[in-house]
Amino acid sequence: MVKSQIYTALNSFAKVELEDIKHFFGAEVPYGAKKAEYVDKISAFIIDNPEKWLSRMLERDLMLLGKLVKLGPGVSYYADYPDYPTVLETVKLIDSDTSDPNFRKLSISEELYSIVSPCIGKVIHKCKKNGTFKMEQIALGILNIYGVIPFEEFVRMMWENTAEFFEDNENEWNRFLEKIYSMPIVSISIHEEQGTKFLFSPCLSDPGKILYQRGEKEFDKVKSVKVYKKSRLLEAGKHAPFFISGLGTKEGIEVRDILRTLGYSEDDIIREMHDMWINSQTVTEDASTEALLSSINRKQDEISSFEKYTEYMKAVARYANSLPKWLLCGHTSDEMDLMKVVLQVDSDQDRALDPVDMEDVPSFDLPEPTISEGFGNLGLDMLKMFVPHVAKTDPCPCGSGLLYKNCHGKNLS
Fold it and tell me: Does residue 343 form part of some domain?
């Protein structure tokens, strides 16, 4: 008997992993079953009950599956590499080719296509209409803003922001709790630390590290979590897997306008601002600080002047300092005066720009300047270059009092 592709995919997992997959998809497997029975039961459930398990999927997985169904079986969909993979990729239900470092190729098999194509549209419509997607976005927003949060605190915030969905139900609190415990984002985001249950952002790889660092002395002043309005939670939970925050703030608007000026598309802007937010969480690390500014550095050739380049970099720094930080329990760097991005201005350049008292500047006899031919042989008189004869160790002709090599000659070969 030829085994299905779904059976083969599930059979590649260990029994302990199949236990997690069983819970996530909602399949039933007898207690004490051997691995082979786990594989049989879960694969049969996926084949026979698509609406049930699709209703338990994350919005991101459902929307991806909808795109793959629309393209058809075996047709590749090209996607960026996100901070974390989809559930469907993780359990190998869809094909994922990661041989290219720039993008991954995703496709759906004939078998899975025949299973989900009759009902995927119906499930997506239902989740939009009954508030399932909105609840998930709020939940993701909470996790993305705080990084790691005690489960009880998460439940309290969810109730404050989603109780409206349960007002027409009897025993609304129990219905709410039932919904919380069945949410896929909850089941894949649990972390236990010293007997306490936490939930963490899917963008965070090591929640234990954040909890440990919060206990360090420099964060003693962070006494409580910052409370955000539902609109900010929704903003921080949309666009999975590329999450953003503060898009409507003056700092966010400024950075978005800069990225548009530099030629980024709207989709690219979401990705770039997502990366800024994530990299701002670890600004104490040189690599993260460099990555924070990469969207500007990547477009250096399109920036007209050094002054404009500096202006753009400072705008990114202001934006980073205005964003919620995991280590600061949702507070910003500006609010706590911690973890601030401070651009290091070259001290020599800085001094060169300061006003100079000309009485303090020594007098030097400089040789007469010469005119080099430059591109003169091309008949372009405007491109002839004026070049003073100045040794590296001579004072700079600008009058700054600095050596030429440390002032206007610093970046000249």
Answer: no
- Look at strands 370-372 and 148-150 and give their pairing: unpaired
Domain final position from 232, 256, 288:
232
Are 59 and 146 contained in the same domain? Answer: no
Per-residue H/E/C for the chain: CCCCHHHHHHHCCCHHHHHHHHHHHCCCCCCCCCHHHHHHHHHHHHHHCHHHHHCCCCHHHHHHHHHHHHHCCCCCEEECCCCCCCHHHHCCCCEEECCCCCCEEEECCHHHHHHHCCCHHHHHHHHHHCCHHHHHHHHHHHHHHHCEEEHHHHHHHHHHHHHHHHCCCCCHHHHHHHHHHHCHHHHCCEEEECCEEEEECCCCCCHHHHHHHHCCHHHCCCCCCCCCCHHHHHHHHCCCCCCCCCCCCHHHHHHHHHHHHCCCCHHHHHHHHHHHHHHHCCCCCHHHHHHHCHHHHCCHHHCCCHHHHHHHHHHHHHHHHCCECCCCCCCEHHHHCCCCCCCCCCHHHHHHHCCCCHHHCCCCCCCCCEEECCCHHHCCHHHCEEECCCCCCCECCCCCCCEHHHCCCCCCC
Q: Lowest-pLDDT range, 59-63, 105-109, 286-290, 372-376? A: 372-376
Domain enclosing residue 109, as ranges? 5-125
Q: Higher model confidence: residue 161 or residue 84?
A: 161
Domain count within the chain: 4
Residues 204, 284: one domain? no
Q: What is the pLDDT of residue 379?
A: 39
Q: Is the peptide bond before 369 cis (omega within 30 degrees of 0)?
A: no
102 and 182 assigned to the same domain: no
Rounded to 5°, angle at Cα 265 from 60 and 253: 90
User: Are 83 and 22 part of one and the same domain?
Assistant: yes
C-alpha distances (whole Å) from 203 to each of 19, 85, 146, 234 are: 24, 10, 11, 16
pTM of the full predicted structure? Answer: 0.80
Structure-block tokens of residue 104: 């991954």
Same domain, yes or no: 104 and 199:
no
For 315-354, what is each residue's pLDDT tens digit? 999 999 999 999 999 999 999 999 999 886 554 444 433 4
